[in-house]
Amino acid sequence: MTLICKKFDIEDDKVCDDVIKEYKDEFIGVALRLVLSPEEVCGILLGNNCGTPYDPNDLWNVTLPSTPKPPLTPRVLPKVNIFDVVYFTGDIPPHNVWNQSKGDQISALQQFTDLSLKYLPKKPIYCTLGNHESAPVNSFPPPYINDKDSISWLYEAVADSWKNWLPQETMPTIKSGGFYTVKLGDKFRLISLNMNYCNNMNWWLLINTTDPTGQLQWLVDTLQQSEDSKEKVHIIGHIHPGGGSCLKAWSWNYYRIVNRYESTIAGQYFGHSHTDWYEVFYDDVTFKRPTSVLYIPGSVTTFTSLNPGFRIYENDGMYQNSSWAMNRSNKPVWQKEYSAKETYGLKTLFPEDWSELIYRMKANDTLFQTFHRHYYKMATPPSCTGKCKTDLLCDLKSGRSHDPALCVDIQS
């Protein structure tokens, strides 16, 4: 494999040597446990590019409770003008994935913790795990891998870091699966998901993709308890479920869950892409009525060819949403990049407003190009017309992966 990497000039010699060294043990560990055919492996890793190979582990569903779905309730709460919490959606280490160790990742986690406590000493910071937190990257073995390949080394370190902001009762699910739930206030709850168990580059899932750690069933149970208690819920995660990086069965189950609990879920906040955009969810009967919006606000990192940025949300009142960016070529001064309501002419930030914006951008290229500049956080964007524009608008409509039907009206 090292010879192939070098011969075909996939990377320079040092990267080839280090990547093979980093992944060799995991590759062998997965291969020894694998029961799938080459066609089935291709289907999981590359999706529709391999046709439609059958995977017996990919046909699974979570169980929704028999409790009737309540009527949709208004998404308006009293206005509060204070900065309450920080959501961090993962990926602390740099992306030099060929030159990382478990010790490096723990050191980066500790540095993040120390800096957060120093500069935001009075603010709770709620985190989720990115795919770069582990070593090798994307390697998140399920709990039944409990030998030398176990992921417990990372979850123990994460629990030790996150205990600065979380109560003790969150520790069991963090240590077993890297996810948790916590109350943020009266009738207000946060759920942090470990999206690495939907990651198609997590090779351990080739052994069995069926709801690793039971996290999605736990999500259903937690949301049902919140519905019964009349709580509103925010969900944070790293890999957005609509992208091709999220396995189909996991993504489609998550979509069902969001639609079932649309009256309870008040916001979804994810990361991974480094760019600034969103995904709209639609009812899974007609796919016409918007039910939820998932925000992907961009990254602090400049990787690749981006300006750093962060997002401020006001979740009460009229739901303000503004992004701030810093030009990586100038002095480190943060400037307000845009307000979503003002820039895009949104009456509110409800799902129907974000869905309508997609169709307005399809018809109005000037509006789309404004969105495209913000997509890159005001860095110089590449040209985006024709298929590029259609594909990006399609991404905005795709709250679940591997479903071309969601984009038919955009492509027409």
Automatic annotation (TrEMBL):
PROSITE patterns (alphabetical): SAP_B
- Residues in a coiled coil are none
An example Gene Ontology molecular-function term:
acid sphingomyelin phosphodiesterase activity
Catalytic activities:
a sphingomyelin + H2O = phosphocholine + an N-acylsphing-4-enine + H(+)
* Location of the Saposin B-type domain: 1-54
Q: Does the keyword Electron transport apply?
A: no
Provide GO CC annotations from the record: extracellular space; lysosome; membrane
Q: Name one GO biological process term.
A: ceramide biosynthetic process
Highest taxon of the lineage: Eukaryota
User: What Pfam families has UniProt attached to this entry?
Assistant: Metallophos
Which InterPro entries does this chain map to?
ASMase/PPN1_MPP, Calcineurin-like_PHP, Metallo-depent_PP-like, SaposinB_dom
Keyword tags: Disulfide bond, Glycoprotein, Hydrolase
Family, per the entry? Belongs to the acid sphingomyelinase family.
Q: What is this protein called?
A: Sphingomyelin phosphodiesterase
Organism equals: Magallana gigas (Pacific oyster)
